[in-house]
């Protein structure tokens, strides 16, 4: 006798991205509805006990997303979870900024039910597209009881990754995402609802010889926090370091990340621009988070009035 499958309801929030793109004059454009995305995976879901419901939010290229758009994604996830009958959420999203949106949801939504981000490297009308398989695996993951209570996930290219520490590491390969995080990355304490769109955090690239006027410029424009994509283990040039020191003295929080793909920031070098010197002045090392996710975490800290260290 076949054991009955427990029914599960998964809501797919659609935001656009390559998974919803088709070839149009001038390039790929998000044109595909959530209903059409679901239609591709219906045969594989038969007998699974999973019911899938589309929830349209937007049709954007994720490189166009603003902090206000991240607020809308977070708010929509919260709204969907107001329905106790929903067992999980899948968010279809472009790959360019998926890691930012995923960590925003992971940080600002605390519900035991899973939220899974997915997308595609090939458009919807590509005969060898990876979108349907990614979506199917994301839905199945969101329907798994074992996916509860572990935070937001990215399911992509047969990989299941925690949002914390994830980053896109290949421009075109179907296995697009990797992670710097430990197997079970710890999460910050729950955060009350805050608006990231009210906060300006700038990311500055600390290339050799980078001048301090890069820092002066963003501060003059109202920057409330700075993330540095530093060299090596968190090092910057002398002039750039002097500018960061002045920013810290003005009470502007500074997070030091790195342009290096792998490894953590520990800050071991001295000298004016050495990582240890910057940390000793009050900058915060990003640990395994790269600049994109560090920016979201710092913005959440500023918006909530919490010490940024608690988010890293």
UniProtKB/TrEMBL annotation:
Family matches, as InterPro entries: AsnASE_II, Asp/glu_Ase-like_sf, Asparaginase/glutaminase-like, Asparaginase/glutaminase_AS1, Asparaginase_C, L-asparaginase_C, L-asparaginase_N, L-asparaginase_N_sf
Residues annotated for substrate binding in this entry: 62, 95-96
Presence of keyword Hydrolase: yes
UniProtKB keywords: Hydrolase
EC id: 3.5.1.1
SUPFAM superfamilies: Glutaminase/Asparaginase
GO-annotated biological processes: asparagine metabolic process
Residues forming the catalytic site: 18 (o-isoaspartyl threonine intermediate), 18
GO MF term (any one): asparaginase activity
This protein's record includes keyword Hydrolase: yes
Record-annotated L-asparaginase N-terminal domain positions: 10-179
Domain Asparaginase/glutaminase C-terminal: 200-310
Pfam annotation, one family: Asparaginase
PROSITE patterns listed in its UniProt record: ASN_GLN_ASE_1 (PS00144), ASN_GLN_ASE_3 (PS51732)
Domain of life of the source: Bacteria
Family: Belongs to the asparaginase 1 family.
Protein name as catalogued: asparaginase
Organism annotation: Corynebacterium pyruviciproducens ATCC BAA-1742
């Amino acid at each position: 006798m076949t054991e009955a499958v427990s029914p599960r309801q998964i809501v797919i929030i659609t935001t656009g991205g390559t998974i919803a793109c088709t070839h149009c004059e001038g390039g790929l454009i998000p044109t595909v509805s959530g209903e059409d995305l679901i239609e591709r995976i219906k045969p594989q879901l038969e007998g699974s006990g999973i019911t899938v419901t589309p929830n349209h939010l937007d049709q954007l290229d994720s490189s166009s997303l603003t902090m206000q758009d991240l607020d809308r994604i977070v708010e929509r996830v919260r709204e969907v979870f107001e329905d106790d009958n929903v067992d999980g959420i899948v968010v279809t999203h472009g790959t360019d900024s998926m890691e930012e949106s995923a960590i925003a949801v992971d940080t600002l939504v605390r519900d035991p039910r899973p939220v899974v981000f997915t997308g595609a490297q090939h458009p919807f009308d590509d005969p060898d597209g990876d979108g349907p398989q990614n979506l199917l695996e994301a839905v199945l993951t969101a329907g798994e009881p074992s996916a509860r209570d572990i935070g937001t996930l990215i399911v992509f290219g047969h990989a299941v990754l925690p949002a914390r520490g994830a980053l896109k590491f290949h421009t075109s390969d179907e296995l697009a995402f990797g992670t710097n995080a430990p197997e079970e990355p710890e999460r910050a304490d729950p955060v009350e609802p805050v608006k990231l769109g009210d906060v300006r955090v700038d990311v500055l690239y600390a290339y050799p010889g980078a001048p301090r006027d890069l820092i002066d410029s963003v501060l003059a424009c109202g920057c409330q926090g700075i993330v540095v994509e530093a060299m090596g283990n968190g090092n910057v040039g002398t002039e750039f370091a002097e500018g960061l020191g002045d920013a810290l003295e003005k009470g502007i929080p500074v997070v030091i990340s790195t342009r290096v793909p792998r490894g953590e920031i520990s800050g071991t070098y001295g000298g004016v621009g050495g990582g240890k010197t910057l940390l000793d002045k009050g900058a915060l090392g990003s640990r395994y988070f790269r600049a994109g996710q560090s920016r979201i975490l710092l913005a959440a800290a500023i918006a909530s009035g919490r010490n940024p260290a608690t988010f890293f």
